[in-house]
Every structure is written in C-alpha cells, then in structure tokens.
Protein 1
Amino acid sequence: MKIYFKKYLLFHEFTSNLVALQYVLLLISVFTLNGCSLMEVQKQIATVGNLGTLHGVIQVKSKLKGHIVVVRYRDNNGFLILENQITASSQGEYQFSVLPGQYSVFAFIDVNKDGEFQKDKEHGNYHKGPLFFKVKAKQTTEVKTLKIDDDIAIPIENIKVVINKSEFIKNIGKVTTLQNPKFTLMNYSMGMWRPLDYLVQVGGGLMMLQKYEKGKIPVIFVHGINGGPTNFQTIINSLDRKRYQPWVLFYPSGLRLDMVSDYFVQAVKELDSRYGFNEFSIVAHSMGGLVTRSFVKKYTKRFPRHAKNIKFVITVNSPMAGMPSATSGVKISPIIVPSWRDIAENSEFLKDLHSWDWPSEIPYYVVFSYADGDAGDGVVALNSQIPFKLQKEVIRMYGFNNSHVGTLDDKKFIILTNSILAKHTK
C-alpha cells in the first residue's frame, strides 16, 4: 500500500488539477477498499485494453428496401449469446469491439424498422461455413463478405440462442430524467476506473429526457471524463421543450474513445431507424468534444446521406490537442485509464482525428474558457482548446472568463447556446 501511495504522490506532481483530483479519488479508494478492489480496477482496465475487433461487409442483392441490421452472437459452450446488433453503413460495412472468443453474425434487411427479423417477410443470411470466427485480443478479424439475396433465409438453426444484451444497448432511447439515481458522482467515477462494473451496474446509454415527440428537435449532450448528464442541468433546464427534446449520452469515460464514438453512431442510427427524425444537434463538454468529433467523422462517412441531419455542433472547453497530464499518466502511472491513451498529446487517436477535415456543411462552434492568471480554464490549456486547425474549421469561437465546468452554468453561455439553436433549427 505504501508503494502505491508514493507513486500517486509522484504522479500528482506531474498532472493537471483534473487528473490530480482523479488520483486523489483513487487514493481514497486505495485506503478504504481492500487489495482485491485495487486489483479489480487493474483487471478491468486490462480487459478493456485487450478487446479485439470483428469487421465485415454485407453485400445486398435483394429487391427489398431497408437498413441492414447485423446481429452478433458469442459462442458459449454450444449456446449462442445474442449480445448486440448494429446497422451496417451505407456501404454495407459493420464492426464490433469484442472480448476474445468465438463469434457468429447474422444480417437481415429490416423492412419494417423494428430491429427484429421477420423470417416470412424479410431477407437475411448468415455464414454457414465457418459458422464461428475467432477473435484474438487486440486484433481485427476480417469476416468473409456475407451476401443477402431474394431467398427467404432463417436465423441460425439447431442451436439455442439466448438474448443477453447489456443495459448500454437496451438503454438506447430509454426515457429518464436528470433525477435518475444513477446520475451520481460515484457512478461517474466508476465509469472511469471500473468501466466493466459500470456497464453491468449502471448501464449508461443514449437516453431521452422526455418521451420522443415527432417534430421536436433532439439536442444531444455529451459529457467528458469523470462527468455525466447532470453537468448540463442548467442548459437542459433552459431549453424550450415545445421545440426541442434533450437527449444525453451517458457512457463510461474510461473506455477508449473510438469505442464510445462507435456506440454513439450505433445509437443515433438505431433511433433514426426507429423514429425517422431528420435533424439533431450536439453540445459536448471537455473530452466529450473529442468523442463528438470522432462521431461526426464516422457518421458522415458511414451514412453520407444523413450528414445534413446534423444541424450544428458546439464543443465546450475540449482538449482538442490533447492533455500533457494524460501524456504523463500514460508514461508513469501504475494504473492507466484506457481513455488517457487517446487524450494524450500526439496520440494515434488525435492524429487520425485531425487528419480529417470537418465537413463545411455542418456548422461548428467552439467555446473556450480561461481563468484569471491561468493559460486556460484551470484544466485544459488554451492552445489545446483552440489549436490552429480547429480555428480554420469553425464558424465562430466564443471565449468565457470562467472555469472548466463553471462555463456550463454561465448565463451568457446559456443565452449563446439557445441563440445558436434558434438560428439553425426550424
């Protein structure tokens, strides 16, 4: 225990206020929990780091029209566990992040948009040989192209199928409120340090704060590291509910950001298939701005005809050029939160994100903040909030003399956000 304490004190000297605070929280857990709990944190983070990828393409030669739904099964001693399903891209591509193991996929044309296969009305297919594909840790398994034609196919036969979707998947479109007892600081912290426990105990998801109403425009709020939906309470309460409906992306912030943005794309596309809305906007804070930029990159590539549905994006105090504290954490921390690898300066995630140019047809606004006597907002430096490439892509930037989180409650920020909403929505 003393060894860990010394390492955390050393790390404290190299980190920003935000990451140092997070380490203080972990120090508390070290002294209040037993050794197995600390080992569990390490185990969960290692598990997330060992995920593999299942990637493939669906080729359609059917006369039926509809989105292509790809269902993923995991082999569990002769049982097929239905864990997840996604909508393939306009090009027929699909991708799953999975634990090492054996998997199978089934794809079908979702004609009636209910997300379930109608064997007498919809066309589908699965790989008959081999049925299972082995996915190894940190590797991508390429699946042979799967063809769907006009034959009436049925799902995998003679094997018992058990549906076991996580709450993270089942909560897509779930209606809740900001008073949800799961929206707590303790759960926000769990999402960073113990993302697997979070997915089981908390769930998360892309959730609605009121029942879906056709004609009301979704505004999606995306929190940052160690954050959650309640960070946006002031701005959400200010929305005109006659015109807008707020949604919140609630996710474990310890996950790799590509995984989070993949889920974001999946969730938006599923809700689009379900409700057919034709416009939405996004307001993102801190690391949520990186998740959102990754989302826009993937969404516009996978579903180019739907790019026009994104009416605008606002990112607030986001570390677009990375965080020196995350860089130090990756180098010297005894426990490395997976998302730190992505927000570290010059990470592969950031390089890929900035090698792509923001679409000119999607209005992009950047809010940055600065504190008196500080070269940033107390957490993120100005040169990371507004790097030069970003300045060339945005419609306009707005600066606030406020703190990293405090800006979200700033009256001027509330007025600004609502004015941008009014400008870009019908």
Protein 2
Amino acid sequence: MNKNVQKIALLLSGGVDSSVALKLLKDQGHQVTAFYLKIWLEDELSFLGTCPWQEDLSYAQAVCEQVGVPLEILSLQEEYWNRVVASLLTDIKAGRTPNPDILCNSRIKFGAFYDLIGAEYDLIATGHYAKKIERDGVFYLAQTPDPIKDQTYFLSQLTQAQLARALFPLENLTKTEVRALAVRHNLATQARKDSQGICFLGKFKFTDFLKAHIGERVGDIVEHETGVKLGEHRGFWYHTLGQRQGLGLAGGPWYVVAKDPEKNVVFVSRSYYSSEKKRDMLEIDFCNWLVTPPVSGQDYEVKLRHGAHMNRGTVQSLGLGRWRIMLSEQDQGIAPGQYAVIYKNGICLGSGIISESAV
C-alpha cells in the first residue's frame, strides 16, 4: 500500500457536506469506510412520528454506492441518551440554555465512536467546516475560509487526543464550493438543504420533546422593572433569554430577560435593548483548552454563538478553572449554559460554559 494512503473512518450524515468529504477522500486514494451513526431515540421519541433518520440513511447509502465505499450503520442511541440528552435535560431544568450539538461532537462523534472503533483506523473524518494544523506534534483547531459556515464553535470542546485523530477534508472550502463539487460529481445529496435544529430531533420541534420529558407547569410572567404579573407560561424551560415570540402578551414587544427556576417565574421587559441594561460581562467555567489556556488580562476574539459574528473581549482568570470575559461591546445573547468560544488570530483556543452574565 502507498505510504500516503491511510485507513479512514468517515462519519456520513446523509447531507451534502459529509458526502463531498467522502468523495474527496476516495479520489485521493485513501481506504475509506463510511459510518452512519443512528442516534435517533426510537423509543423515547416514537410519539413524534416516523423516524427521520431513515431518509438520511437512504441518502447516505446512495452516496456510498456512487462513490464505491462500504457503509456501516452503528447504533449509539444509548450512548447519546446517557452522554448528551440526560445532561441536556438536567441543564434545562436548572434554567440554563445548553448546546447539545457541542456535546454530541465531543461525547459521541469524537467520543463514543472513537471508543467503539479503537485503533483500527488511522483517522476519523467528518464534513465539518474546520481546519487542523500541526506544529511540532501539537494540533490546533483553526477557522476555515467560510466565516458563516465555520464550525469550530461546535468543536471547541474537543480534547487534544480527539483532535489528533480528526480529519476535516473541507478545511479549505466554502459552502458554495462544496455545493459546486456535489453538482460536478452528481452526488445524490447535491440538492439537499442543510439540516436545522438539534441533531437528534430532525424535523421535530424541541418544545414537543420538552413537553414529553419535562412536562408543563403553569407559572407567572412578570415585568422585570415593576414586578407586575402580566400573564402566565407553561414552564420556564420553554423560554430563553432574549426571546420575543410566543409570550402571548399585549403592549409589547416584550423580551425574556431572566428566569427563576425555583419559583418558575419568567421575567420580561420592553426595554431589553436599552443602554442601561449592560450585557458586556460574563463568566465561564467547565473550560476546555485545546492546547493552552488564554493569557489572563489579554484581549481575544469571543464567539457566543455559531455564525460569523465575533466579539472582542478581555479575559481574566478567577482561579479554580473560572474565567471572566469583559466584552468591548454589549451582546444581547448572553445566556447561562451556552458556550463562549475563545479565538486568537483564527485559532480556536477552546471554550467554557457561561455561568453568570450581566442582565
């Protein structure tokens, strides 16, 4: 075998990105096996309807037949429930806003799957828009040319060991270029729309999932400034900070500005964006640094959600793994439970979970 040929396991979702990644690796001459991970919670979510994974799998099978690679189907439903969903529900009940897709990457795709296949494969490839850079045996996670599609935010909780075995074939491509490649090679997924929402729910509503697993409990909607009750809600866990739609209140617009999990109260305000409500400070813990932590007192780029927008902020170590971030401008999307991802010159240093914020 050519010494440049590697044995690669590729995670194939049935979407256009991983399909193009598969085609690129096959054309490079690598020995590739595609794996479809079944994480749909069949028993827990059967009330929602037909399993959405079947359509994804049909596209994955079609692409593998076109490209000429074997496809294996692995069920990681139990692992997904134990490592992702259980944590998700705990955080929601505590009033936080977790990100299951970040947990899915670190605990399932680059976690449970790594454990399952062991050392049989040299590398594990995905269709993520991310770049891996090696310097003196150390691996760094870097942003890609497409600022909108760049997915380093979702990979910021990977460990050095996980990143060492990762491969991102789309690292130098934009979404437009990936679509063009799919059309050029006439891949079965070339016209599929990008998936939206939480990975294990597919097309179904997150509120339906919450209703089944947490239920409903009527509570008060209270004006933040006056303490006046304005209405009622079905459970604080159905609401997120900054939310405007779905409150059912007249005289707005009203925005969710805080929640009290113990009393099941949702606080709202009409002046969410007013200048006196400064939202330029947050604290993070449960931090994961891919190589080394940031330097206390220095400025970095900070991403509070997936997308092109970057904040600038000064980080300060508080000891015991906690950090404070002072943003150079206000951000109305600071929510406990979400992740703040730290960057320097296009390199993702890692991330932490937002624990406190100025409201």
